[in-house]
């Protein structure tokens, strides 16, 4: 059972961990995620665009490491506001509900940005992604070399607005704690290991 609080919005300060997650993906997963066999250099430059403009990234964070992620990239489409989403869950973390938890966050995000079309592209043989999308009532459009999941007319509700506000506070607190641990953790441990100066002469 996935602890849902571990799925949170990632910030620019999480870029390093997000990059490390994408770099850990094996070649088959990279092919499923990006639609081609991408090298490390591609990921290095790709990840720089993930936190730009209105793009959002959600991650499943365990022991300070991002083990699963989903990107939300909005754009103006012919029917109004559209967004493209893409998922990646590391091999050993699959089939535990992480993809579903990430999808829930994307639906809330899409609702609150009044998204007329949420689209996800995958390869025809990618049953996992298509089944996951169907769980969220996506319509799957078939093309010879691609499948496109589409969810239409996502509008804000009182619940979706409240949920994102609450999630953002938790995400911010969790990211801040992560930074604190990274910056102060090792130093604090080192200080603790040093002999304490005597306060009075022997
Ligand atoms: C697609 C992906 C994100 C699913 O993540 P996940 O964390 O395993 O998903 P969940 O555990 O939440 O599974 C939810 C549902 O998806 C479907 N599903 C997941 N993996 C599946 C698989 N290997 N085969 C068939 N259906 C699968 C099932 O219906 C599952 O529900 P169930 O467990 O009740 O049967 C993951 O397999 C992945 O990262 N794949 C590589 C990258 C990729 O393909 N990205 C998509 C293109 S952007």
UniProtKB/TrEMBL annotation:
CDD domains: NAT_SF. InterPro entries: Acyl_CoA_acyltransferase, GNAT_dom. It holds the Pfam family Acetyltransf_1. Residues 5-157 form the N-acetyltransferase domain. This is GNAT superfamily N-acetyltransferase. SUPFAM superfamilies: Acyl-CoA N-acyltransferases (Nat).
């Amino acid at each position: 059972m996935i602890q849902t609080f571990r799925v949170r919005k990632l910030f620019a300060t999480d870029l390093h961990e997000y990059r490390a997650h994408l770099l850990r993906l094996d070649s088959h997963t990279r092919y499923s995620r990006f639609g081609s066999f991408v090298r490390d250099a591609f990921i290095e430059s790709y990840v720089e665009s993930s936190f730009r403009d209105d793009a959002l990234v959600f991650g499943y964070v365990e022991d300070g490491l991002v083990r699963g992620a989903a990107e939300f990239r909005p754009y103006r489409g012919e029917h109004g506001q559209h967004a493209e989403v893409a998922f990646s869950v590391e091999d050993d973390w699959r089939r535990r509900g992480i993809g579903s938890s990430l999808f829930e966050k994307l639906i809330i995000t899409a609702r609150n940005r009044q998204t007329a079309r949420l689209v996800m592209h995958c390869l025809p043989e990618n049953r996992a992604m298509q089944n996951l999308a169907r769980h969220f009532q996506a319509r799957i459009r078939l093309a010879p070399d691609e499948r496109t999941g589409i969810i239409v007319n996502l509008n804000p509700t009182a619940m979706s607005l409240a949920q994102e506000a609450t999630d953002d506070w938790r995400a911010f607190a969790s990211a801040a704690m992560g930074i604190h641990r990274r910056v102060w953790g090792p130093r604090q441990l080192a200080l603790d290991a040093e002999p304490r100066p005597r306060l009075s002469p022997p």
